[in-house]
Amino acid sequence: MSATTDGPEGPQTDTGTSTVAATPTTSAPQTGTGRRSVVTAAPTASKPGTGPGPSAVAAAPPAPVPLRPPGSRPLESAPPTSRLLARAALLTACLSVAAALLGLVRDQSLARLFGAGRDTDAFLVAWTVPEFAATLLIEDGLAFALIPAFSAALARRARGAAGDPVRSLVAGTLPRLMLAFAAAGVLLALAAPWFVAVLAPGLPDPALAVDCTRLTASCVLSFGLAGYCSAVLRAHRRFLAPAAIYIVHNVAIITVMYAFGGRWGVRSAAFGVAAGGCLMVAIQLPALVAELRRGRGGRTEPRPAAHVPPLDVPLLAAVLLFALCRQSQVLIERFLASGLPAGAISHLNYAQKVAQIPMTLSMMLSTVTFPVVARALADGDTERARGRVERDVAVAARLVLFGTAAVVACAPQLIGLLFQRGAFTAEDTAATAGVMRVYALGLLAQTLTGVLVRSYFSAGRATWYPVAAMAAGIAATCGIGACTAGSRGAVGIAAANAAGITLTAALLLAGTARRGVPLRAGAVLRGLARPLVAAGAATVAGALAAGVPSAAPAGFAAGAATVTVVFLLLGGAPGARALAPALRPVRSLPQRLAHALTTR
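Request: output the structure for the sequence above.
Response:
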């Protein structure tokens, strides 16, 4: 299944002829398979999606002119249907689940081969590089600047701008960004000893961390190119290749660890990170080249180059600084944990990776709809953008609260089932589960932050309020973490993380009325009441059920089933309404089969 610009019945094309008279007319792009009316004499206007008005009889045969440039694609100018969005979200969620499962296999392999000690602590310091690169260059950073820019370029193309604004934007931005990514990667590799010394001053084996950091520094270039390709494709409503990048990345890491782990040790994981970054670019290039070629297809005459404004430097600085501040929570955790007994960084890492799975899945819909919100604002439709963001918040909150209840209720059983084998002991399981339960308390705020910040940057204009909100949360994380790390260890650091991101989410929600997409904060908070109550009750019931069986698999199954039943009874099915359009073909399949059999 491919989530391209297909309409409800498959790819839409115009097979008829589109002409207007020589007199001035205004008409929005139409899709379909029929022919458009010919209008003459009096100027007429048609609203998007309604078709032209009644045809008039011309006094003389008009000279036909194209209604839109031959290279433009009809569906790029039309708002996507709910069925298309649901299908894209479902596809992205399925691929994200596969990537998350492979991420668990990757972490299981790391724990099995190298345990939770000096070697894994050294690698996880180097793992900070791909973590930051993914946030800054693929997800929360570069995408916030590029997707609105390409959405605006697509809007210009749909309005008949000269040349191809999309290809002009690529030509004006990609070479410069590539040079910046390459220079940053080389600088990081050269500065690896200082990077390790600043990030983890109490690390037992800094030399190993330096070697791993130099290998992972290549991710600055590869992740930057992968993020650029992903932003362009998402703006074109192509989600298959961008959603698959983390699958190939994890496959590369796992393969290299098992192939060379015995010879290279934990350095094999760092080499796998570098190889996986190259695959992330390679898997998206065919779709990107096809989109850029399609944009100029059908043009028989040379056209003047489109003037496309360069990327807004203040906007790019704002989004990158926000992403840097958000990801710096990981730096704070590892800095504080580097002074704790060996294994504390690993316990925090494993707890975070498992706990963030519900958050990642809950944000799939907003990842798909971000280009839709950006396009709505580019078209001046603020009301459509607000409705879309508010629906995204409601769906994401329900999904993440359901996942949070399961994670907190079944934490020991889940960690034991996933990691307790090889060098990962029962003591590691208990420590990681305790950290994960506290860390999960901030998952709702993490999700709200990820969804709400899109409403600030979707207009393609610089705003510094999200940076200030994130800085306030980071300050809270630093202060609380410094006070609790000595007495509570890794659990205190996880509590500081949850408190800091909760403050950020509250500030972002409060500021939307005056900046970005004007959300109705009161309605958003009222919508969270029922799923919060359902999540609390499901957590208590699930923890009691999970503690009855002695075996971890049986305990996890009992706890997860109890959480599911209680949450559904009290809070309703999370995300069911949003994904219903994508599931309609599946639900109607038995009816269609029965109709086909009875009519033969």
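Residues 318-593 form one domain.
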